[in-house]
Amino acid sequence: MSAAPLIHLLDDDDSLRTALSRLLSAAGFEVRSYSSPGDFLLQPLPDRPGCILLDVRMPGPSGLELQEALRKQDILLPIVFLTGHADVPSSVKAMKAGAVDFLTKPVEKGTLLEAIRRALEIDARQRATRDGDARLRARFATLTPREREVFDRIVNGKLNKQIAGEMGIAERTVKAERAAVMTKLGAGSPAELGRLAERLGRISAD
Amino acid sequence: MAFALLAEALLAAAASLAIGAEAKKNVLIIYSYGRLLPANVEGENSLRKTILEKNPQARLFDEFLDVPRFGGPRYSATISKYLREKYAAQPPDVLVAGGEDALRFLLQSRADLFPGAPVVHMVVSRYFLTSQPPLPGDVVGVPIEWDFVRTAELALRWHRGARRLVIVTGASERDRLLEVELRALAPRLRERAAIEFLAGLPAADLLRRLRELGPDAVVFTAGYFQDGDSHYLAPRDSVEAMAAAASAPLYGPYNTFIGTGAVGGYMTTFEAIARQAGQIVNALLAGRDPASLDLPAAMPTTLHLDWRQVRRWRIDERAIPGDAIVHFREPTVLEQHRDLVIAAVAVFLLQAALIGGLLFERRGRLLAEQAVQKQRFELAQASRLALAGELTGSIAHEINQPLGAILSNADAADLILEAGGDRRPELRAILADIRRDDLRASEVIRRLRALFSRREVERLPFEVGQAVREAEATLRAEARRRDVTLDFRPADTAATMAGDRIQLQQVVTILVMNAMDAVAGLPDDRRTIAVSVEGDTKGTRIAVTDRGQGIAPDHLPKLFISYFSTKKTGMGLGLSIARTLVEAHGGRIWAENGPGAGAIFHVDLPPYDGALGLTAGQA
């Protein structure tokens, strides 16, 4: 997935939206403009790298409300907020909810583009992580039930002998299953297997 | 009862009889001089009046010896005989001697004529009495003292240039007696002036001498009865002639001289002398023992002056003693029309007081008005600041939107130019947008400045709906910020009112902001505020309706009181300011809960009636 980033621009002020859109386009970005959060939510979101440039105050749901709604939907596009009046409570709330930046209008080109770049970087990293995880899950899905059972016990620090005893199978069988798991998940060492388990969320609390 | 009345009637009759018996008192007054002598006329009136006041039944008889025209032993004998026979049937109980000649006559003839009747003397000089043997115990009276020396001293003091005191006396016996008296007194004045006597001169000579006196002289005279040519005349007439001739001021001892041309002098009026005598007569008629009467040594004298002579001789008005009796002073307006003047003065004072009162009140009202104006101005400023504070968010938003657009457009243009290539149409569009946004920002600033700038309160007619619509723009931005639906329904009719349009806008702003607070945090369908303006010829009503929680009934009366607030933030001044502003425009503001949820705030404003003055309700 190496598509060019797409910047989603949300501002109810036509004039400002046009100007920002011009600026971002001139800076080489692809921009998609929306006049309200509703407008944004109604349109299908392409699976492309990018970020959201969001006006805090808009008619209907505010920028902050949209931020919350997107998080709930696991839409993790980084958000750069724009506001006409940076009041402390909303900026704190936005940043806590994971906003990349909270910019005050009028915003300078340098500041804006820097924030956008940072947002895109975050998006790329998130996207990379998310892509890695997806591949891992796909590999994990190829494991047989017995291989998964062995995997869980290995990452929880059990020895072959213990596993054989617990599962009521031969120790030799455990060794064979273990080799198959490491091959399927592409892990070169038991330690790596542990990191993969962490990403997969399969390490029990105790 | 009948008996009592009868007894009373009898007693009354007895009493009246007793009075009648007592009233049969006879008083015989014998005057020295002729009947028509001014002094006698004046004295007689006063004496009669004084006696009859106390003794209405007394019978007063007057006789005139008419000296110096008649005299001598034979004349005295004839008069005695005449009087004895005339008054035989009604002998006098009290005798009054008017003047020294009459006193002398009675002292000689009384025992023969009216034995036992006490004598009251009047117009007898103390100097004369000292020259006589002591008076019998039943001959009483208060002598007069011609204050010659005092009068002369006064004259010499007033007329600074005077070096000569000229004393005029006559040729009759009485005149010569007076001359003797004056010559005895004159040496006391020697140090003050040279004393000259013009005694017993024929009238023509005398008047010529008086004409030739010049400014270094003052004249003193008691007048005379007879001149050097034996012409008889009343002293008053002699003085009149002398005063007319004299080239120097003339002073004398008798009040009868006032008006003849004499300046005046210390004197006892004949009226006062006769009154004193009358009082003594009354005492004697009442049965008092003459010897028991406590009488003053002499009649007091008073300075009498003729104002016209004071002016003629240029006497310094300030040198006149305060107790002097000034005759013929040009009556002032006050003296001439006393009642009228008093009335006029009273009216004037009343009017002045009224005007003063009105001025004071007007001043007070002006001050109060100024205070109210100032207070209103300050309130307007407070309101302005409070509103500005409240609106900071939307103000920033409204201004920063166009500013942000301008900056971004400029930056975009910059990037476009950097990128090169002919993208002029795009750049032109950018410049057009920049211009538009710039104007937009200025417009916002202009509008906000109009709403919040510190300025004087206006009094101009304006269209209410139009003014409210102007407030709408700012409120709409705020409503958007707060996510509140604002429903403006201005009047169709062009209702006008007089006053300050900005203040009205502030009122509307306060009400709408309050309404926004009321609906904050409520579901979408309740975050709605309606603003309506309805007007006709009777006035305008503005209503701000929200769909909030409404107003607690016990809060309704307190809403418009300063510092009353149900909000966590805010000073509670908004509605009190709104009320002040509305009332300053002669309007009324009140609140009620709406038929459904929420509250309605009403503002009633009077129509513009052509007057721009302060409207009712202001004070």
Describe what this molecule looks like in 3D.
The complex is a heterodimer of chains A (206) and B (619). By secondary structure, chain A is α/β, with parallel strands linked by helices. Chain A folds into two domains: 6-132, 3-Layer(aba) Sandwich (Rossmann fold); 142-200, Arc Repressor Mutant, subunit A, CATH 1.10.10. Chain A contains nine helices and five strands. Chain A has a five-stranded parallel β-sheet with strand order 2-1-3-4-5, with helices on both faces. In chain A, helix 6 packs across helix 9 (190-200). Chain B contains 17 helices and 19 strands. Chain B has a five-stranded parallel β-sheet with strand order 2-1-3-4-5. In chain B, helix 13 packs antiparallel against helix 14 (424-452). The model of chain B is unreliable at 1-7, 9-22 and 613-619 (pLDDT under 50). Classes of the chains: A alpha/beta (206), B alpha/beta (619).
Give the count of helical stretches of chain B: 17
Which structural class should the secondary elements of chain A be placed in? Answer: alpha/beta
Mass-distribution shape of chain B: rod-shaped
What's the helix-strand series of chain A?
Answer: EHEHEHEHEHHHHH
Biggest interface: chains and residue counts? A-B, 27 and 33 residues
CATH fold topology of the largest domain in chain A = Rossmann fold
Radius of gyration of chain A: 23 Å
How many separate structural domains of chain A?
2
CATH superfamily of the largest domain in chain B: Histidine kinase-like ATPase, C-terminal domain
Number of domains of chain B: 3
Helical fraction of chain B equals 40-55%
Q: What fraction of the residues of chain B are assigned to beta strands by DSSP? A: 15-25%
Mean pLDDT of chain B: 82
* Total DSSP E strands of chain A: 5
SS-derived structural category of chain B: alpha/beta
From the N-terminal CA to the C-terminal CA of chain B, the straight-line distance is 75 Å
Mean pLDDT of chain A: 86
